[in-house]
Amino acid sequence: MTDPTGPDPAARRARKGAMSATAALERGFGDAVRSRLPHIPAELLMFVLKQGWAALFGGLLLIGIILSDALWNDAWPLRRYDALFLYAITLQALFLVFKLETWAEARVILLFHLTGTAMELFKVQAGSWAYPEPGVLKLMGVPLFSGFMYASVGSYIARVIRIFDMRFAPYPPFWTTLLLAAAIYVNFFAHHFLPDIRLALFAATLLLYLRTRVWFTIGRSAYWMPLPLAAFLASFALWVAENVGTMTGTWIYAGQADLELVSFAKMGSWYLLLYVSFVTVTLVFRDALSSAPVTPSRATPPTPPAPPQSR
Questions:
Q1: At what angle do helices 146-163 and 265-281 cross, to 10 degrees?
Q2: Residue 290: beta bridge partners?
Q3: Cβ distance 289 to 168 under 8 Å?
Q4: E strand segments, 25-135
Q5: Beta strand ranges found along the chain (DSSP E)
Q6: Is 220 in contact with 174 (CB distance < 8 Å)?
Q7: What would the pLDDT profile of 275-306 be if each residue is shown by its tens digit?
C-alpha cells in the first residue's frame, strides 16, 4: 500500500517512461480530437478509443479466432488451435518488442495465464466446457492457446491502469484483497465438491470494494466510478467475448445448443474472476493504490512543461 498522501512518484515516472513513445502518440491524438470536437463528445470518444487501445491484445485475439474460424481448412496440416497458439505467442512477443507492455507487467500476466490454464484443465475434465477441435498443442483436452485468453484480461487491466493513469482509493488493506482473490479462485474448484459460496463472494466484493473509487484521467480531466461497477461493465464485455468463442465453435459449454447465447451466469463468473486478475496485476501496480480518498486535483496528473520558445 502506498502512503495515503499519494502514489510513489518515482514508480509512476518509471512506468510512464517505459511507455513514452505510445504515451506521446496517445497525447497527440487526444489533442487533435479535442481541437475538433466539443468537450463532452471529445471526452467520450477518447474514453472509448483508450479503452479499445487498452484491450488491444484481447481484441486481436478475438479477431484471430473469428478469421481462423471463417478461413480455416481442415485439410491443412496445421490445426486451427495450434495456429491460434502460434498467433497468440507472436502477439505477446510483439507487445514486448514494441513496449506495449513492460517485462514486469508480462510477468504478472504470465502468472494469471498459468492460474487460468490450471482452471481450464480442471474445468474441461469436470465437463464444464470443451474444446471440440483436434490439435497437437493440447494438454488433457485443453489447447495451449486458451491460457492467452486469460492473459488478455491481465493485459487489459495492466494497460488500462497505465493508459488512464488510474488511481484506486480508498483501497482496502492489501492482505484482505489477496484473501478474497484466493477465496474466489479456490471456489471455482471447490464448488464441484462443496457448497458453492459465490453469493457470499459477491457480497464480499461489495463489502470490501464499495468505497473504492477508480480514478482515471482523460486529457486534463479526472473522473471516477465505483470499482464494483467497473468490474460489472468489464464482465459484460467478457460475456460478449464468450459468445464470440462459442458462436465460432472454438469452445462449447455443457448443454449449450448451437447458436444459443452463453448464460448470463458466466457474467457473474467473470465478475468474480476479474478480482483475481486485478489483484494479480496490482502486484506490479502497487503505486496506483491509496488507502486514503483522493480528490480530482490529486487524481489529475501534473501539467507537462511547455516547450521552450524559439528566439
A1: 60
A2: 2
A3: yes
A4: 129-130
A5: 129-130, 138-139, 142-143, 167-169, 213-218, 221-226, 252-253
A6: no
A7: 999 999 999 999 999 999 987 766 665 555 44
Quick check: helix, strand or coil at residue 213? strand
Residue 177 has pLDDT above 90, yes or no: yes
d(CA 238, CA 67): 19
Give domain limits for the chain: 9-299
- How many CB atoms are located within 10 Å of the residue 24 CB? 10
Q: Strand, helix or coil at 289? A: strand
For residues 171 and 213, what is the distance between their CA atoms, to the nearest angstrom?
8
In Å, what is the CA distance from 227 to each residue of 12, 140, 220?
21, 36, 22
C-alpha to C-alpha distance for 25 and 42, rounded to whole angstroms = 17
**Which residues have C-beta within 8 Å of that of residue 247, sequence separation ≥ 6?**
259
Q: Specify whether the CB–CB gap between 249 and 143 falls below 8 A.
A: no
The residue assigned the cell 448443454 is: 255
- Three cell numbers, residue 240: 460478449
Kindly report, residue by residue over 183-241, the tens digit of the pLDDT.
Answer: 999 999 999 999 999 999 999 999 999 999 999 998 888 999 999 999 999 999 999 99
At 20, the amino acid letter reads S
Beta-bridge partners for 129: 253
C-beta pairs of 103-107 under 8 Å, 24+ apart in sequence:
104/284, 105/155, 105/158, 105/159, 105/281, 105/284, 107/284
CA 102 – CA 104 distance, rounded (Å) = 5
